[in-house]
Amino acid sequence: MTIIVAGSLYIQPGKRDEFMACSNAAILLARANPECEDFAVSVDPVNEFRVNVFEKWQTRSALEAFRNSGPENDSFAWITQFDINEYEIES
Description:
Shape: globular
Number of helices: 2
Strand content: 35-45%
Strand order of the largest sheet: 2-3-1-4
Number of strands: 4
Radius of gyration: 13 Å
Number of domains: 1
Largest sheet: 4 strands, antiparallel
CATH topology: Alpha-Beta Plaits
CATH architecture: 2-Layer Sandwich
């Protein structure tokens, strides 16, 4: 099974660059996991408050372990809205 997590986050005005800098630790941690096939957080080229998220995991257990061990910082407080979806794909 493959798990895809995809969507967008909306960040408080003036905090997007700081949010992106804080995201680097999570990106590196996820990509170091052998069951993480892709993990990306990127600024939206049109909307200055939007950040796009894409994750691809081999197993739900790896995704959940990552979520429970991610780096702690204040960046989640800067999220004003989100639209994130998970998809399970059977091979």
